[in-house]
Recover the amino acids of this structure.
């Protein structure tokens, strides 16, 4: 999930870790800075800071996207091939990686430990701890190469027009977003009313 204005550079350099992106690029930031500080913690498997990984969600229709629904007209969801896991170290989690109760894994045999009931449900509020679980992640170190980007998803015709010039398949996928898209949405209107750390 990113702002559409970041996609051109992503297609040049790949999906970078937060640390690298802010050291060498100037991305359009859609994150909450206070919450991002929680991602300075180290993972329990490789001992790297979470910000050293390129982060992806298992189910993109999650609380992070929900609190950014007022700017979804300008967002792009980047679809990644599973082949990205073959190139580098990866970790997957059973919830938001910055949350206290989240467990970390790096063996495919542990995939069964993920909260698939929450990840495959229409909504997360029907499950205990559903908001955290719905934000389960795959973290790839140190980046995701361009060759693993298979498709771009957006929810508005303006985003589609912009993204379709970049040489990657693009779809208007309103079903992946929340409600209808608004063309007048702005970053400053964002409201973080969710208690799950993003």
């Amino acid at each position: 999930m990113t702002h559409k204005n970041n996609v051109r550079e992503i297609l040049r350099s790949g999906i970078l870790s937060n640390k690298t992106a802010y050291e060498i690029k100037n991305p359009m930031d859609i994150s909450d800075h206070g919450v991002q500080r929680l991602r300075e913690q180290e993972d329990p498997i490789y001992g790297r800071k979470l910000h050293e990984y390129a982060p992806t969600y298992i189910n993109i229709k999650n609380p992070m996207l929900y609190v950014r629904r007022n700017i979804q007209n300008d967002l792009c969801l980047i679809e990644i091939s599973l082949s990205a896991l073959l190139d580098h170290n990866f970790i997957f989690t059973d919830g938001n990686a910055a949350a206290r109760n989240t467990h970390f894994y790096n063996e495919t045999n542990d995939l069964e430990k993920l909260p698939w009931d929450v990840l495959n449900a229409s909504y997360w509020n029907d499950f205990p701890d559903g908001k955290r679980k719905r934000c389960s992640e795959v973290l790839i170190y140190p980046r995701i190469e361009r060759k693993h980007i298979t498709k771009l998803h957006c929810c508005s015709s303006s985003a589609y027009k912009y993204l379709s010039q970049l040489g990657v398949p693009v779809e208007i996928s309103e079903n992946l977003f929340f409600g209808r898209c608004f063309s007048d949405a702005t970053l400053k209107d964002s409201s973080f009313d969710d208690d799950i750390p993003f």
Notes: Strands lie at 2-3, 15-16, 54-57, 75-80, 89-93, 104-105, 137-141, 143-144, 149-154, 170-172. Confidence is low (pLDDT under 50) at residues 184-198. The chain is about 20% helix and 20% strand.
